Amino acid sequence: MRLFIAPDKFKGSLPALAVAQAIARGFQAVFPEAQADIAPIADGGEGFAESLATALDAEWITLMTQDALGRPIEARYAWKAADQLAIMEMSAASGLWHFKPAERNPMAATTYGTGLLMRDAIARGAKKILIGVGGSATTDGGAGMAKALGYRFLNDVGGDFIPHPGTLDLLDRIEPPADLNLPEVVAACDVQNPLLGDRGAARVYSPQKGAQPHEVEALEIALRHLADVTAKSLGLDCRDVAGAGAAGGLGFGLLAFANATIRPGFDIVAETMCLDERIAAADLVITGEGRLDDQTLDGKGPAGIAARAKKAGKRVLALGGAVTAAAENSGLFDAVLPIVDRPMSLEEAMANAEPLIERAATRAARLMKR
């Protein structure tokens, strides 16, 4: 039996590689002769860089940068020297995971630290930067990132200032750096939200980052002003592009200030990891993530794996920490199995994700053997 095991992470408890290894152990306890091809996957969110770094055998570059509130931190990105390719996640520097709920401050949070990662890759000679744009603590429209790359944000008397949502009302014009030599930049993004409006960065995502109702509207106003001044200063209006609202508007910032293109993160992962060829060689495809729900079905990694497997005529098993009726009845998966095997709290399940996943895989294998 040839298994192709391609799960996403179980968020907050286990990275995708550890999930895949636990599934392999569980199946091989019943089918010791089974060959397991392991491919930890991701979309544009957390785990994107690790998935591609593993597939490409890239090295990790670690440097000092800053988190979304300006505190010094270490962060890393993957580097494939032979291709002069940098692979990074904005969440490494500017992610929400750095903050306890009480520390979140969306009116001050900035993507400056992400810009420092990009600047380091550019100085290293990168010809291409792939950047995953999920998991952000920010709603600054990428202004901080642009500042780190050398853009000047000027008020009405020509004074240069540090841009973040609380200061963007001062913005009168933006000047690009004279010597910025940008490589190809690709934003890996699996949402279609524009920058502004009811589906935009502020109204949809900023409450998850700690924004109170009055702050949501202040952030909307700040982002609209940034888009207006960007259009006036640079002749670019990217506010309505699908994905511009991703990561608190970093999608917009990458489009406007780094001449980026936006692509679905899972498509990038699928191409880089040769997923179609590996699926075609398998007898059974296994995927999963921490929660299989409506969001899973809306283009996330396990849905992408399942769609490709179905196209190849392969059976698909999905494991989830939690499984909704929508995911179970979607028709994407031949079988869906929750990993929890007895009543337990969410905290207990997350703390014991690895053995629970392994046991669930063993149960599935035993059912197949009957």
Number of domains: 2
Structural class: alpha/beta
Largest β-sheet summary: 6 strands, mixed
Name the strands of the widest sheet in spatial order: 3-4-5-6-9-10
- CATH level 1 class label of the largest domain: Alpha Beta
Query: What share of the residues does DSSP label as strand, in percent?
Result: 15-25%
Q: What is the residue-averaged pLDDT?
A: 94
- Over all CA atoms, what is the radius of gyration? 21 Å
Give me the CATH superfamily of the largest domain. Answer: Glycerate kinase, domain 2
Describe the structure.
- This protein has 370 residues and is an alpha/beta fold.
- The chain folds into two domains: 2-41 and 273-369, 3-Layer(aba) Sandwich (Rossmann fold), CATH 3.40.50; 48-265, Glycerate kinase, domain 2.
- Helix content is 38%, strand content 19%.
- The chain has 15 helices and 13 strands.
- The chain has a six-stranded mixed β-sheet with strand order 3-4-5-6-9-10, sandwiched between helices.
- The chain is elongated and about 80 Å long.
- 52% of the residues are buried.
List the helices and strands and how they pair.
Blueprint: E1 2-5, H1 16-28, E2 35-38, H2 48-56, E3 59-66, E4 72-80, E5 85-89, H3 91-94, H4 112-123, E6 128-132, H5 143-148, E7 152-154, E8 173-175, E9 184-188, H6 201-205, H7 213-234, H8 246-258, E10 261-263, H9 265-272, H10 275-280, E11 284-292, H11 294-297, H12 301-311, E12 315-323, H13 325-328, E13 335-338, H14 346-351, H15 353-369
Parallel strand pairs: 1-2, 1-11, 5-6, 6-9, 9-10, 11-12, 12-13
Antiparallel strand pairs: 3-4, 4-5, 7-8
Helix pairs in contact: 1-15
